[in-house]
Amino acid sequence: MKRKDPFNIRLVIFDLDGTLVDTLEPTFRCFQEAVAPVLGRVPSREEILERFGPADHQIVSDWVGSEHAKAAVERLYRCYETAFTDSGPFPGIVDLVRELRSKGKLTAIFTGRGRESTDAIVSGMGLKDLFDAIVTSDDVDRPKPAPDGLLEILDRLRSSAEEAVYVGDTIKDMDAARAAKMIGIAALWGSPEKDQLQKKDVLLVQVPGDLRQFLL
User: According to the model, what pLDDT value does residue 5 have?
Assistant: First the structure.
């Protein structure tokens, strides 16, 4: 695909889980703990991944139904309280974000997570001050793969799609970028869909250093 001139990239938007922070495995476990008592079985990672897009609490609520939703969401958040103790940003990614900002680039996050868990992770890992905007699925009408979150960031930061890129780790991330008319960059270092992404017509980066070469 045709590359943008990196000097024309003003805004770099990142997905959170699997892109900035290594939190997918504990997230899958918490989803399993939340819904298994109602389903009578432990859902697979693939089943959970298929439901990604809406906010995490909404996924759980829809999955178990209104009668069980409150208790299931409580189990989800109770699991979150300790799930990410050993988690953190991927190696090199924080330095990259800082370097982007030092070069005058805007940085933002659009995540499928809900606001509560997003704020807990971003603040707990000391990342909050590294981003000019953070948009979650709770902040928009339609979740990924709809482009609403990306368009919200463009509006907040007064940027155009032509000068922005979205870095994510799933096919839904890339579809959202395409719908927003911006380039999607598939980060493979934490992707649960690495094999599928390698078959898509998107720019692929194996490690944060590769992303740095493209952006800077």
Answer: 55
